[in-house]
Amino acid sequence: MNARAMNHQPEAPASEPEGATEASPPPRPRGFAGMTPEQRRALGSKGGRTAHERGTANKFTPETASQAGRRPHENGTAHKWTSEEAREAGRKGGSALRRRAGRAEG
Fold first, then answer.
1. Spatial distance between the Cα atoms of 60 and 104, rounded to a whole number of angstroms
2. Given Cys at both, which of 35, 69, 72, 99 links 78, Cβ 3.0 to 4.6 Å?
3. Comparing 34 with 8, which gets the higher pLDDT?
């Protein structure tokens, strides 16, 4: 028997057409994806109550909002708009307002 014949591996069985094998059920969603909207709401509510009891909940006041808005400018990380970017953003915002107003009337 030669070396080539000794290393010969049997052919893999021909694959069966799709749908012919037993289909395993799709995996069930885990975590929040597996919960009903009511269960997610209850869990979120529980977390919010706990955060307020501990005193770690974010109390967003106009003062803290103002302070948060200033921070990127103080750090130098705020986006610096070019006149072209500002013009484009204004154009998009204006057209969005017109579309929204048109839907409300119709």
1. 31
2. 72
3. 34
